[in-house]
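pls design
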């Protein structure tokens, strides 16, 4: 066993001779032993030897002689689609070479976490373009779909627990198919924003269980719009940006001076930006028009649709406040998650005019599963849809309540189903 005094003598002699062979010959020990001692004790802050340790979904990799994270990923043959880098550290130290030369040495250590399987699984997004609109001589019909806030929370078992109400969303698809089967069909479907929750992109502290859940939410919402397109092949489908979709823009604006917000593929400079909601959801393939920015109005038969920003504390107060804004047109909004509708008679140059304001409600879960402001009590939210008819210049505005995943339209009852198994089969993902 090499004593501390022997180690000290070896290091002193190495300073003079600069040769592990000569030191070994002088002290009567092997050169490999000299090399090991010199390397261990003459390298200040020397990191441990190279290693690759994996525990469950976490992995720690260290490689010597590498200066960059990209170099480590390549040297260790790490698939970036399977592993994400949580943190990394580059170590640098000086080492003794022959003839007293000091050289710089590098080592890099990275802490990795395994991406969920859906991150690198291929999902088929088959184009479903809008078909030519059929001619009708009756009423124009518009179905309004409010805040879905699609998202997931990952449980301890790894299962994806939805933030949206899957049965209420299924009612919306069933109602769309039913209305399309009627003589007037469906002219337009307007989703008034917040179809995505995007909890991980919010500005507040995020529950770790909500991380790594953006990708399955994107797949779910794309699948939802595909079902709407199949149900109503000729309808104009609109998706308005809500404040939750705006979260992605805010993050991109605050990162790299906003460079990421407007980046486009080199061969598609006139298309949507790479990280836009329209591109992430492949809305073009489904013939869905994305309406942005947040707050931009969409007009249908003289009615203004927008996501909304007003919120009053009690039921009915928000739409009443909208009617008192001084406008002389009707409005439909989302945002407040409550079923509200009110009307007002306003004077015009031609006499009087009745205007209405409506919030259809929401399709997200009504329990505290949806992330919200800390300390807020019971959610005063309700499920519902909106239905508008336009005939001869007059618009009729109706609420379709959804109670316990059940709705009645034109005397027809619709019971929402949990179609998670069908979603798994359609996407191949572990919903």
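designed seq:
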């Amino acid at each position: 066993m090499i004593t501390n005094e022997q180690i000290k003598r070896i290091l002193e002699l190495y300073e003079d001779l600069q040769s592990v062979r000569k030191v070994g010959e002088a002290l009567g020990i092997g050169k490999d032993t000299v090399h090991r001692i010199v390397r261990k004790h003459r390298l200040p802050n020397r990191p441990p030897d190279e290693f690759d340790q994996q525990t469950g979904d976490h992995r720690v990799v260290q490689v010597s002689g590498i200066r960059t994270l990209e170099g480590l990923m390549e040297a260790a043959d790490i698939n970036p689609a399977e592993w994400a880098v949580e943190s990394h550290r580059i170590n640098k130290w000086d080492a003794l070479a022959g003839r007293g030369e000091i050289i710089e040495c590098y080592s890099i250590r990275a802490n990795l976490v395994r991406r969920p399987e859906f991150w690198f699984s291929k999902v088929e997004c088959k184009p479903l373009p809008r078909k030519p609109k059929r001619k009708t001589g009756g009423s124009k019909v518009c179905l309004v779909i409010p805040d879905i806030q699609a998202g997931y929370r990952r449980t301890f078992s790894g299962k994806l627990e939805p933030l949206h109400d899957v049965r209420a969303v299924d009612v919306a698809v069933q109602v769309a198919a039913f209305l399309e089967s009627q003589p007037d069909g469906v002219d337009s479907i307007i989703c008034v924003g917040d179809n995505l929750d995007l909890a991980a992109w919010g500005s507040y502290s995020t529950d770790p269980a909500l991380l790594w859940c953006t990708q399955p939410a994107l797949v779910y919402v794309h699948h939802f719009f595909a079902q709407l397109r199949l149900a109503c092949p000729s309808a104009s489908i609109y998706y308005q940006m809500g404040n939750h979709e705006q979260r992605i823009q805010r993050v991109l604006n605050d990162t790299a001076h906003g460079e990421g917000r407007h980046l486009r593929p080199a061969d598609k400079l006139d298309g949507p930006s790479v990280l836009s909601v329209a591109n992430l959801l492949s809305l073009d393939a489904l013939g869905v028009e994305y309406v942005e920015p947040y707050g931009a109005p969409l007009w249908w038969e003289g009615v203004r649709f927008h996501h909304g920003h007003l919120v009053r504390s009690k039921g009915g107060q928000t739409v009443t406040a909208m009617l008192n804004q001084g406008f002389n047109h009707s409005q439909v909004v989302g945002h407040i998650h409550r079923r509200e509708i009110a009307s007002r008679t306003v004077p015009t140059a031609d006499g009087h005019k009745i205007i209405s304001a409506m919030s259809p409600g929401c399709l997200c879960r009504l329990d505290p599963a949806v992330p919200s402001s800390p300390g807020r009590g019971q959610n005063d939210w309700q499920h519902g849809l909106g239905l508008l008819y336009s005939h001869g210049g007059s618009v009729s505005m109706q609420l379709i309540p959804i109670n316990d995943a059940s709705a009645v339209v034109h005397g027809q009852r619709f019971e929402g189903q949990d179609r998670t198994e069908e979603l798994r089969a359609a996407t191949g993902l572990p919903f």
